[in-house]
Amino acid sequence: MQTVLQSVNGLLQIAERPIQGPTPSFQKPHLVLAFVTIGDSGIIGRQTLAARSGLTEGPIRTILKKLREEGYAEANASGCYLTEAGQRVYESLRSRLTEFLPIEGSELTMGDLQLGLVVRGGGKAVRTGLEQRDSAIRLRAAGATTFVFRDGKFAVPGGSNDCEKDFPSRAWATMRMKLKPRNGDAVIVSGAKDETTAKLGALSAALTLL
Q1: What superfamily does domain 101-207 belong to in CATH?
Q2: Biggest alpha carbon distance in the chain?
Q3: Considering Cα of 189, then 193, then 198, then 201, what sign does the dihedral take?
Q4: What is the CA radius of gyration of the chain?
Q5: What gap in Å lies between CA 49 and CA 35, rounded to an integer?
Q6: What pLDDT digit, counting tens, does each position of 52-108 carry?
Q7: What gap in Å lies between CA 136 and CA 148, rounded to an integer?
């Protein structure tokens, strides 16, 4: 049985394989965002998928072509959907990554619009949090802050062991209630000027922890 890492690596390799024609203008987080958007939706039209993934229709066509060639997705007149093989990878990903949580009025990172995302068991892979921040910024996010949830508290590597106490904010209660972090999880807060870029930043950061 494939591990989560093996499933994710198999999916990400799609973005690395050469194709004929111009170099596609998407990166691994775009591919993962498109993939989980299909899985979350059940079935979705190409134009809607492009809009939610932050891509134009050209790259989306390439992504869908690659997903079909690898047996992860299919399409009909109603839209595109995951195959049984794709659904297994989607469920594997969702066992590690929560859905995105909008966090209103947050000052936990840079960026006007901020989203939270939990990487289950990802805390052990966090070093300083800089790798996650830099990975998010490469996808044009304004910033990303990574917290490790341990002993029932949000902690910053090399910093506060109890962020709720040291940096009071309504965001902590929101994340506790809706993201439901567990001990050993990594909690990423990504900020950007728009929702799609914040999602891509969060995913880019999360991929460094899988």
Answers
A1: GAD-like domain (3.30.1360.30)
A2: 54
A3: negative
A4: 17
A5: 9
A6: 888 888 889 999 999 999 999 999 999 999 999 999 999 999 999 999 999 988 899
A7: 17
